[in-house]
Amino acid sequence: MKPGNSTVFVVDDEKSVRNSLVRLLRSAGCQVEAFASADAFLERLPIDDVGCMVLDISMPGKSGSVLHEQLSDHNCSLPVIFLTGHGDVPMSVREMKKGAVDFLLKPVDAKALLAAVAAALGRHRAALAKQHQQQEVVLHLQQLTQRERQVLECMLDGYMNKQTALQMGIAEKTVKVHRSRVMEKMAVHSVAELVHRCEIAGIHRHATPAEMRKPPA
Amino acid sequence: METTETAILGECVFIGVCVFAALQHGLVALQRPLSRTHLLFALLCLTAAMYFLDKTAIMRLPPAETMVRLQQWKTLTSVLFFVVYILFVAEYTRTRPWWLLISLGVLFLMAFWIRLLMPGAIALALVFSFYGCIRLYRQSVQRRALTLGVGVGLFLFFMLLKNAINYGYMDFYDVSEYGFLALIVIMSFNLMYELRESERRMHVVLDNVPAGIYLKDSQSRYLWANSKFIDWFGVTRDTITGKTDSELAPLAPLSIADTERPSTDQQAQLSEVEISKDGETHTYATMTVQLPVDGEQQKTVGVITDMTGLRQAEVEAIRVRQQLWRADRVASISTLTASLAHELNQPLSAILSNAQAGLRFLDEQSPNLGEIKAILDDIVRDNKRAGGVIGGLRNMLLRSEPQRNLIDLAEITREVQKLLYTEMLNAQIEVNTYYDEGCYVMADKTLILQVQLNLIINAIEAMHDQPTSQKRLEISVVNEGGTHRKFMICDHGPSISSERFNNLFSMFASTKSKGMGIGLAICRSIIESHDGKIWAERNLGQGLTFFFTLPAVHKLDAVNEHSA
């Protein structure tokens, strides 16, 4: 496992269990932060770094599954590994559907826990990386003017310059200028790269963008 | 005057018979102050004797003046005879139509002056007698009815005979006395027969009751004992009569009766003793009563009952009750599996993680020994905790012989709460607790734990369908004025009907879908076996509050007692 600057957040109300988990994770070289209750953890937010949560399901006050549900409200994307003493299949299915990474039964074997933590960290790291890229693209997109945005969409739809010019009711030469500006602002060197970037940001080629087909008045 | 002499002699025999019967029944009546039949019969005989005496005197033909008085006396005695006769018949046949009795009495008294009324009065008296006979016969007291019927019939027969002679239909001397005599003799025989019969019956009863009965004098010497007593202790009537228990000791294990304490009042004294006989232990209970002083002797009656079967049944009942308690514990435990799994899982989980962390630390180049020691300390602690859970479980499941120890009620309540931790967590119940310090009681820890477990599980189940905001449970253990320790659990479940409320502690009164409805009944039997009380009250708002109290013990006292 490559720890890097990743942190494991342990939430368990039972002190002895919490301490033993912290020790085990530390022995594997993780950075660990431990909390005795769901609320204590919520106060620690926001967390921007790579990390994952090891969460006890049954706790007094806010239970583990309630905390899991509330994480998205607090803009926390940490993947969750559940620990429980008496889990059953329906419970695990329910939690997995809600997006838990893993559902482990106590007493948990070190290998299983560490593997789950490693997987969760990897997943979070990837997710964060993707999120960064997304944010970058969105930033680039925001720099585009209205016209450039329209030209970009036509490009994504695979229109030739001529078609684009016709569609937008402007000169082909102007389209070319817009195109080069788009490429420049989006920091890409090829149309393929542009399409890939836009896909990351969630902008896809329109099948038939109705408002674009309309010849301008 | 040969015939007169013979008649006088005959009259004397009559008088003798009557006096004898009067004495005999008079004595019986004295011995039995409650038996009015004998008293009335003695009086009847006495009046008859007086009548005959009078008649004899008349037969001797005294001077005219005396004759008139004697005639008056004769009428008076015959009137008295009939009055007593009517009372006797009323008593004997247990027929007491008071208006008839009073009017008959008045009629006879009037007949003293108006002699014409006499035959009518006698006839009415006879009708009354037959009426009484028929009633007796219907009540299946045939023997009495028949004797009286025959007696009265003979009396009537001789009366009619006499009248027939008087009116000249027959020529014979006065035979009315034979009527009196026949009645008296027959009744006397029957009464004595009944007496003997009732005594015989009494003996049959005394010898056959399932109890040893004896009578002792003021020096505790045996006067009499019934057959059961003789059988049980292997003695004979002859060997025990006139002996005390200590004199008999080498003969038979009679020490039982020595435990009695003579008391001055007539209150029954109870004592119980165990005697080994034929290799078996028999339990006997003796109840002695001082009889009212009879003459100069103060006598004591003792009744000995064989309690062996009863004691065995009691022991069996206790065993069954304890089995029931245990079954309930097992049932409670099965509803607690989640909690118990949690209680065991937590330390096991901590131990595993700690141990594996320790192994990983040891793999490092220079292991941190301080860390390793801390890990091992934690492992030891968690292991003990798991052991404690298993120990408690074993107590709940296996042990069935209750033993009382000095325990802190609050401490036990904390333990139960810990046991139910997961249960409450899953049911989303908020618990508020209040514990007084030093709530010591002498009790069986497991049983008290069971009662609290039952009450808390009930409360949790009662609130199952309530909105979460109402799922509150208040548990407290308080010192009740130093004399009692009180446990209190207040839930906010739904209200229940009066009928259910009144039957809360009855067996099989459950309305819960699961469970047999014996939980609260068992709680009550456990608490009552600890000399405590358990009850429930309705809350002002919603739900019920259950209480139980146990007698308080002060720690210092208990420790002193223990060391002593």
List the keywords.
heterodimer, A: 217 residues, alpha/beta, 5-stranded parallel beta sheet, 10 helices, disordered C terminus, B: 564 residues, alpha+beta, 5-stranded mixed beta sheet, 20 helices
Structural commentary:
The complex is a heterodimer of chains A (217) and B (564). Chain A is α/β, with parallel strands linked by helices. Chain A is 54% helix and 12% strand. Chain A has a five-stranded parallel β-sheet, sandwiched between helices. In chain A, strand 4 (80-84), helix 4 and strand 5 form a beta-alpha-beta unit. The longest helix of chain A is centred in the middle third of the chain and has 34 residues, at 110-143. Chain A is elongated. Chain A starts with 6 loop residues before the first strand and ends with a helix. In chain A, 35% of the residues are buried. Chain B is of the alpha+beta class and 564 residues long. Helices cover 60% and strands 14% of the residues of chain B. Chain B has 20 helices and twelve strands. In chain B, strand 11 and strand 12 (544-551) form a beta hairpin. In chain B, helix 6 (142-166) packs antiparallel against helix 7 (176-208). The chains are: A alpha/beta (217), B alpha+beta (564). Chains A and B meet through helix 1 of A and helix 13, helix 14 and helix 16 of B.
